Amino acid sequence: MSKKPKIVSAGGVVLRQHTSGLQVLLIHRDRYDDWSLPKGKRETDELLPETAVREIREETGVASRLDLRLPSVRYKVSKGPKAVHYWRSEVVSQRPRRPDDEVSAVKWLPVEAALEKLTYPDERAVIEAAVAAPPTNALLIVRHAKAMQRKHWSGEDQKRSLSGRGRGQAKRLVDVLAAFGVERLVSSAAARCKKTLGPYAKASKLTIETYDQLTEESAAKNPKAVRKLMAELLKGLDCPTAVCGHRPVLPEMYAGLGVKEKPMVVSEVRALHFGPDGLVTMETFKPTA
Predict the structure, then answer these.
(1) pLDDT tens-digit profile of 130-159?
(2) Nearest CA among 26, 189, 11 for reference residue 89
(3) Do β-strands 105-110 and 21-29 pair in parallel, antiparallel, or remain unpaired?
(4) Which helix or strand (DSSP H or E) is residue 184 part of?
(5) Residue ranges of the Nudix hydrolase domain (predicted)?
């Protein structure tokens, strides 16, 4: 389908290990009499990962953490072209969900049983992709939120803070980082980077690790140190991690990861999913404000 989708939704393939083997979570909807993956429409100003975790929670009672991006499904409905974007997901917690007019049943099934029970063939392919992909950890590269203009700042540049818009962007990052279950925060020692990760650090009760190597001043003098630091972070990557840096430093940060550099706007997030053999997938999330 070549037309731009008029309706955009997101959801997930939620997996768990059970004593009987790997299981996947399906929902039943009486109004369609179907068994399908949890998913739903994006709300205004919502980024797709936020939509996915919200819809999974609302339709199943599962609080989830997103993993790598899966193939999207596109089809036509009465209102026009529709696209549904999926992530492989894991359970953080689960509460019972009472049946209602939207979802009549929530059921964990062995993968093979789920593939047989699914109503839509396209969703079978999404589950198969989730199961076939290797285990991964996410490394989220964050360009710091909008900072105060240099001409309006008379102090040391490393202490230059965020603008009002930037503070709003930093707050909006909380749900994006939470969607991927970020457990480690790494930042340039500059105030504008630390404050970009600050709201999430407070919400998740995490400490921000700061490095002078990632500041603009240090990176300009010793770019090799930036590449070395990023290579070490990648080598020790054992949980979802976010790293906040500056536009001039980003090329060296990507070089240290062995990934092609891509220009980023302020407060943009680029999620890199690394498996045992290297980069598996990547995706970009631009700010809505």
Answers:
(1) 999 999 999 999 999 999 887 766 677 788
(2) 11
(3) antiparallel
(4) strand 184-188
(5) 5-131
